[in-house]
Amino acid sequence: MFEFKKTSHRQKRRIVLRIWVAGVFALLCFGGLLARLWYLQVDRYEGLAERADQNRIAVVPIPPRRGEIVDRNGVVLARNYRDYTLEVVPARVEHMTQMLDALSRLVTLTPLDLKRFRLRLSQNGRYAHVLLRNNLNDTEAAWFAAHAYEFPGVELRARWVREYPQHETAAHVLGFVGRISETDEAQLEEDGRAGNYRGTNVIGKKGIEKTWEDALHGHTGLEEVEVTASGRPVRVLRRVDPVPGSNLVLSLDIGLQKVAEKLFEGKRGALVAIDPKTGDVLAFVSSPSFDPNLFVDGIDVENWRKLNDSPDHPLINRPLYGTYPIGSTYKPFVALAALQLHKRSATERIPDPGYFEFAGQKYRNAGGAAYGPTDMHHALVVSSDTYFFSLGPEIGVDALHDFTKQFGFGQLTGIDLDGERRGVLPSTAWKRHAYKKPSQQHWYTGESISVAVGQGYNSFTLLQLAQATAVLANNGVYMKPHLVSLVENSMTGKIKRTVTKPSYTIPLKPENLKVVKDALVDVVRHGTARQAFVGAPYQAAGKTGTAQVYSLRGRYHNTNVPERLRDHALFMAYAPAEDPRIAVALIVENGGWGATVAAPIARKVFDYWLSPDRTENENQVLMPAELVDGLPPKAREAVTETQAVPEPQSAEHTSEESPDAVVPPEDQPDNEQDGKDPLAPMRPHGAAPQAITLGEHREPERQ
C-alpha cells in the first residue's frame, strides 16, 4: 500500500514537470513568434511593404508617340501609325514548335516571318518580348484575342510604327529608325537614358531621326497595375501619361527635292541647295537613294545584299560623307584669296600660251586651249588653268589654307546630320601629320600648283562646296547650314527656331567681292555655262568644274575610257545674282564636263525655285493643318511668319546669346567619324563591312 502511494506521487511530479517544460517551451515558441512578428511588422515594415507592393503592383511602361517630321510647306515626311503585333516570351512557352504550328492555323505566319522570328530568338534573352508577326489586321487581332488563353507566352500588343510616305525621296536626310540593338542599349545606359526607353523598341539610326532623337522620342509614361499571384491584371492604380516627341519642321522643300532627284535619275552624284541669307538647306540629294521603310523592323538579308553589294553605293550619304576633288569650282575662292592677300591685282595680265611651266614641268590647260594675256576676270570666265597654276606658288599653300577655311572648306559645317566628314584642306602642317616618312612630309612648291585648281590633295564634301558658295553669295556672312528650321513642343505648342543669327562674318573688301562676283555672272552670260542658261528669266552667277579622278596620262576623250574612270562634272552657282535666294553645288560622278552635264541640272533647279508661281508664298513655313489648329494664337502666328533674317553688315551683329554663334573655324583634329564604318547602324546582325571608294585623285597633266 505504501509503495503504491509512493509511485503515484512520483508520477504526479513527472506530470507536473512535463507540464512546466511544455509550458516553458510554448512560451518560448510564442515569444519567438511575437519577436518575429515585431521584427517583420515594425522593424522591417517599410522595406517589406515596398517589396509586397512590387509583387502586387506591376509597373508597365507606356512608350511615347514619336514626333512627326514635315517639310517647310507641311508635307509629311515621317509619321506614325498604330499597328498590332504578336510577341513571344520564350520562357513562358513550353513547346515552341507546337505553339507555332497551332498559332499558324489562326494567324498567317509566312516562312519569312518564322525565319526572322528564329533569328530574333537567338539574339534575345528568354524573358525578352520577341516579335513574331507585325501588321496584323483587325480581323486577325480580334481572332487571336478570342483564343489568347490557348497560347500562354504569346501576347497581342499595339504599338506606334514609323512610316516614311515619301519612300526614297530625301531618304538620306530623314534617315530611319530601327530596333534597339545591344550597342544602343549599352550607349543608353552610359548616357543615363535607359529608363526613358523602357517599352520602346526602336531608336533613330541615321539622319534626322538619329541627330534629333532626344527631341523626337519624347518621355515614356507608366501605369501601376494591381495583379494577382498568377500575373492577371486587376485594376490600374496610377497612370502617368507619356509625353509625345516634338514635331520637326525641315527647311527642305519636298517639291524642289523631287525635281532635283528626278534630274539625277540614272546618275551617281549629289546636290545641295542652300538659302544664303538663312542657312536653310532647301534640297539635299544623294543619288542613288533607298527606301528607309525597309529598315524600320530590320532589313532582311536579300534587300540588304541588293543595297550593300550595289557598285553605286546607294546607302552612302554622298553630300555629307563623300569627299571629292572639286576642280575649277575652287577657282573663285583662290582668286578672292589672291585679291585679299594682295598677291595679285584684278587687272594684272598673265600670259597664257596653253600651259604653265615650273621647274621644267609643263602644266597644261584643259583641252589644250591657249587664251593669251589674261586678267583675273577673263581667267574665271574661260576657266584658264594656266592663270590659276601661276597663283599657287604666289599665294602659298598655308596662306590659301588659312583663307579658304573661313568659307568652310576642310571644316565640319555642323549641319544637323550625323556622319559628316571634314575632308582635306591641305597645308604644310597637314602633310607633316598625314605622312610618316620624313621624305614624304616635305611640301613642294609644285604641289601648290595642283591645289590652286582644286586638284592635288584637295578633297571636300559637296556640302562644304555648297556652304562656301552660299557664304560667297551672302558677302562673307556665314549662316550655319541646317535642315531643321522649327521645333514644336507637342504639349505646350511652343515654337523654337534652330538658327537665328550668323555664326561669323569674313572680313572681305567689297571691291574684291565685286571682281569675283562680276566674273561669275559673266561665266553664265558669256563663259563656260552660257549654253545652260540661255533664255533664263533671271541672272545667275556660277562656275563650272571638271575634276580629274584617275591618273590617265596624255590627252583623252571621256567616251574613250571606262565610265568609272571618267572625270566628275561639277557646278556651283547662286541666283538671282543681284539678290541671291538660292545657292547650289552639285556633282555628277564620272559625268564628264561640268558645263554640259552639271550646269543644266542647276538651271532646272533654279527655274523651279525662282518661278513666279512658287515664289508668291516662298517665305511661309507651314505645318500640317491638324498641328497648326491646335497651337496657341501666338505660336500659330510664329509658325507661319517669314524665315528671312536681315543681312548683318559686320561681325558685331552676332549676338553672344545666339546658340549657334561660333568663332571662325580653326584647324581641328581628324574627324572621329572618318575611321568608322558609315553603314554600321544599317547592317544586319553579323554582316561584314565592305570597302567603299568614291574616287581617287590625279595630278594635273604634266609634260
Summary of the model, kept short:
By secondary structure, this protein is α+β, with helices and mostly antiparallel strands. The chain is built from 25 helices and 21 strands.
Provide structural commentary:
With 703 residues, this protein is of the alpha+beta class. Helices cover 34% and strands 17% of the residues. Helix 13 crosses helix 15 and helix 13 packs antiparallel against helix 21. The longest helix is centred in the first third of the chain and has 42 residues. It starts with a helix and ends in a 65-residue tail after the last helix. The C terminus is likely disordered.
Overall geometry comes to elongated
Tally of helical segments: 25
Tell me what portion of residues adopts beta-strand conformation: 15-25%
Helical percentage: 25-40%
List the helices and strands and how they pair.
Layout: H1 2-43, H2 45-56, E1 57-62, E2 69-70, E3 76-88, H3 96-103, H4 111-123, E4 130-136, H5 138-146, E5 154-163, H6 171-174, E6 176-179, H7 182-191, E7 202-206, H8 207-211, H9 213-217, E8 221-227, E9 233-240, E10 247-250, H10 254-263, E11 269-274, E12 281-287, H11 301-308, H12 318-321, H13 331-340, E13 355-358, E14 361-364, H14 376-382, H15 385-395, H16 397-404, H17 428-434, H18 438-441, H19 445-451, H20 462-473, E15 477-478, E16 484-488, E17 495-497, E18 504-505, H21 510-525, E19 541-547, E20 568-575, E21 582-588, H22 594-609, H23 612-615, H24 625-628, H25 633-638
Catalytic activity: Preferential cleavage: (Ac)2-L-Lys-D-Ala-|-D-Ala. Also transpeptidation of peptidyl-alanyl moieties that are N-acyl substituents of D-alanine
Region (Disordered): 635-703
Active site: 328
